[in-house]
Specification:
Elements: E1 2-4, H1 9-20, E2 26-29, H2 32-37, E3 48-51, E4 71-74, H3 87-107, E5 110-114, E6 122-123, H4 145-164, E7 168-172, E8 175-177, H5 188-194, E9 201-202, E10 205-210, H6 211-219, E11 230-232, E12 236-239, H7 240-251, E13 259-260, H8 262-275, H9 283-288, E14 292-293, H10 300-304, H11 311-325
Helix pairs in contact: 1-6, 3-4, 5-7, 7-11
């Protein structure tokens, strides 16, 4: 197996899950010296390190160690919730994915592209979900550069894969939580509660799942003879208020919940777009916080064995790991 984005949160857990199933792996990393300095690489076991990135595959794709690769997991992406200078993100997320389709074609391998639930599962109202047949949420999520790049990557990768005869499987998980977020990005919402940095709670929604459950489901795609073209890996959906209350309860951290109506947040977002005061969150973040996120699956449980562990268990273990490893004040109760 070849894994891009191996140094990330999901990449770390995917490598561990592959090792548990005795599946050999190679990792694509830009800086091998930085890879070996990661304090968790022993969890991945022995892997073959390929130096390079998705945007320049000609420099590495003929590595002899990749000759037997049958599945390529493309996890590498840049996540930036802002309209400021999105060009680098768009290039990596779109062009990098298309290059990986070409790599899979050259290797005669299956490509598993990990996208985002937000490409289809973004709504104005709660209690709405998107299954694998849902259309892209371009009218809503397409306003934001990150999701626009993922929607475009899905569409263009599918067209190119069909043209080249590549077996492309698109996997859409929601927000990933759990232990081991060594970059402290995906677990940022939890970290803000632990550090008492939660001034207001928007009236939008949250959809999260455990990174370990997603990693386990991904490994099963190395075994299916005829997988579907799309799999959703849903988790737990709630309002933001309910989510932050759960974090507060499992962490024994007090949270003063100041609800803000969506009309006010949308007005503030318009102000931020025009004047961009530094003390305000990015307008994209404000706009996203007024939306709801819902995902369901027609077949991931049956075909991938995807299970969703209790959300409080995930949050307890996320909080415990953050308190042990996060910088600043997260360790203080």
């Amino acid at each position: 197996m070849l894994v891009t984005g191996a140094t990330g949160f999901l990449g770390r857990h995917l490598l561990g899950a592959l090792r548990a199933r005795n599946v050999p792996a190679a990792v694509l990393v830009r800086r091998p010296d930085e890879w070996v300095r990661q304090d968790w690489v022993s969890e991945a076991g022995p892997v073959h390190v390929v130096e390079g990135g998705p945007l320049a595959p000609d420099a590495w794709m003929r590595d002899p160690a990749l000759a037997d690769v049958k599945t390529v997991f493309h996890l590498a992406a840049q996540v930036k919730h802002s309209r400021v200078a999105p060009e680098e993100m768009e290039t990596l997320n779109v062009e990098g994915t298309l290059h990986m389709v070409r790599v899979a074609s050259a290797l005669g391998a299956r490509l598993v592209y990990v996208s985002s639930s937000g490409t289809v599962g973004c709504f104005r109202f709660p209690d709405v979900v998107a299954d694998e047949h849902a259309p892209h949420a371009e009218a809503l999520a397409g306003r934001w550069p990150y999701y626009a790049s993922k929607i475009r990557a899905e569409k263009e990768a599918r067209r190119l894969a069909d043209k080249l005869g590549v077996e492309l499987v698109i996997v859409r998980p929601p927000v990933l939580l759990g232990p081991g977020d060594h970059r402290f990005r995906s677990t940022g919402h939890v970290l803000r509660v632990l550090e008492h940095r939660l001034p207001v709670v928007p009236r939008g929604g949250m959809h999260f799942t455990d990174v370990r459950d997603v990693a386990a489901s991904l490994t099963r795609l190395t075994e299916l003879e005829q997988p579907r073209s799309i799999y959703h890996l849903p988790g737990t959906a709630s309002t933001l208020g309910a989510f932050f209350r759960m974090v507060s309860e499992v962490s024994y951290t007090s949270v003063t919940e100041r609800q803000v109506p969506n009309w006010l947040l949308e007005g503030v977002a318009r102000v931020a777009r025009s004047s961009s005061p530094r003390w305000l969150p990015d307008p994209v973040v404000l706009e996203m916080s007024t939306c709801y996120w819902g995902l369901s699956s027609l077949w991931s449980e049956r075909e991938l064995g995807h299970t969703v562990r209790p959300p409080r268990q995930t949050l307890v273990e996320t909080v415990s790991w953050l308190r042990e490893h996060a910088p600043r004040k997260a360790a203080h109760r």
